[in-house]
Amino acid sequence: MKIKSALKAAAVAATLIFSGASHAADTITYNSTAVGIIWDGGHMLNPGDMFGEQTVPVYTLGNTTLGADILAFCIQPTVTQGPDTVYTQHSGVVLADLFPADVGIDRAARIHSLFEQNYASLSTGTDLQKIQKRVSFQIALWDLVADDGSLTNTHGLQYVNGASYAQVEYDGDLVDLDLSMAQGMLTNSETVVSTNSYAYTKFTGVSGGHESQMLLSVSAVPEADTWAMMVVGLGLVGFMGRRRQSDESEKFAV
Question: What is the distance between the alpha carbons of residues 153 and 117, in angstroms, rounded to a whole number?
């Protein structure tokens, strides 16, 4: 196991690398909201890395149409996140188009279940718990978009074994992360979920003329009764407008 000082140095370096932001007022900004590291496991970006060190960043985005500081997750773990990436927003994403079914795994269905089951909880709890859940969610999402949907299969790109362990950066230090949290999310995602609580938006990135990591975010879909209330409200506004117009017409006709 690496000594603690080496781990701290790696975590701080990872934070600096993955928290770069685009600061122009009219461009989408991105910042790191959580950073984790998996040690001695399968490496998705550099499969030949003898140390198996995998950095796991989670982002917040600004200047989008979805609101301020929205959570965003990498869906291209085999692509490098370039410096000063310029992101473009693409709304109305269909998961089945973005993640075609593969042999032995229905990627779109399981990613849908992953979000439906876990996304709301990623912003609850203490600051440390939020970081741990967000990093675990990103690890699970990576396995669903680019691997076999299980952390325990050592034949995949991303896997863990008896020597593997993970940590997250918190308050300038490193805190252990139980990888069973990510595996639990993966296992639960096998259950088909029929609800559709979120609309999906992807963000394609370009850095120095080259492709940078694509990100995925979601926004809440209004429930049916909310839409009904909106329709009724618009109907009342229209009715009152027509009534006022009618009253004014009668007034001038007298």
Answer: 23
Please tell me the distance from the alpha carbon of residue 240 to that of residue 244, in angstroms, as a whole number. 6
pLDDT per residue as tens digits for the range 117-144: 999 999 999 999 999 999 999 999 999 9
Q: What would you report as the CA-atom Rg of the chain, rounded to the nearest whole angstrom?
A: 22
In angstroms, the CA 248 to CA 116 distance is: 51
**Segment 141-179, tens digit of pLDDT:** 999 999 999 998 877 788 888 778 999 999 999 999 999
> Do residues 66 and 25 make contact, with C-beta atoms less than 8 angstroms apart?
no
Tell me whether strands 29-39 and 165-170 are parallel, antiparallel or unpaired.
Answer: antiparallel
DSSP 84: T
Distance (Å) of CA 119 to CA 71, 107, 204: 10, 17, 21
How many CB atoms within 10 Å of residue 21? 16
Note the pTM of the prediction, 2 decimals. 0.81
Q: Cα(119)–Cα(126) distance, rounded to whole angstroms?
A: 16
Q: Where are the beta strands (DSSP E) in 10-85?
A: 29-39, 54-62, 70-74
